């Protein structure tokens, strides 16, 4: 259907028009492009629901998706009438990229290369770097706990709201501090002191792989009036959007 201008089935019924498809495939947000072999990409960006760029002079339309335990990718090269759909039962995006690029390169006349080994080595290096960062954070948290570093939790606990995400609550239960999102109930976990003005949260669901920093904004009296967030690991999936959240105290 995407390669048939919105039409599908033996009767060529139209789900959307060619004009609507052209609009979906127009750049709305520009993303920096890396012009280097083998694809020599000159433009890169996001349209209406699609990533858009060029590879070896051909327009490429793509998107990825996923849930816990699976990730997927759809790639279209309309001028070649080529569509590649990769469904995987694991959570590493490099897998679908390796498969997609291997197929795509055969159509573009690009010499075959071992993408599996290439991405394996790249991921191994990235994971080692990210693990070093996260290990330092949790080692510091453990040391703080061992040294019985005192934190004024009473000035921190409360209800906070981000205009887009909604409310979260930091509360005390049996001597421990917990983060709980109202709109996303699974986004819950224990909060720990890391550094002055900087807490960290470990989510109850370890499969998130998205433990995060909580940066505190305090008023003159030392009471926390705002919280911003950032993932601890650079490998945290971008879709958590922690960096875009700006919580303000409401209670």
Quick summary:
Helix 2 packs antiparallel against helix 3. This protein is α+β, with helices and mostly antiparallel strands.
Describe the structure in your own words.
This protein has 251 residues and is α+β, with helices and mostly antiparallel strands. It has two domains: 2-113, DD-peptidase/beta-lactamase superfamily (Beta-lactamase), CATH 3.40.710.10; 147-249, Lipocalin. Helices cover 22% and strands 36% of the residues. The protein contains three helices and 16 strands. The strands form three sheets. An eight-stranded antiparallel beta barrel has the order 9-10-11-12-13-14-15-16. It starts with 6 loop residues before the first strand and ends with a strand. 16% of the residues are buried. The mean pLDDT is 96.
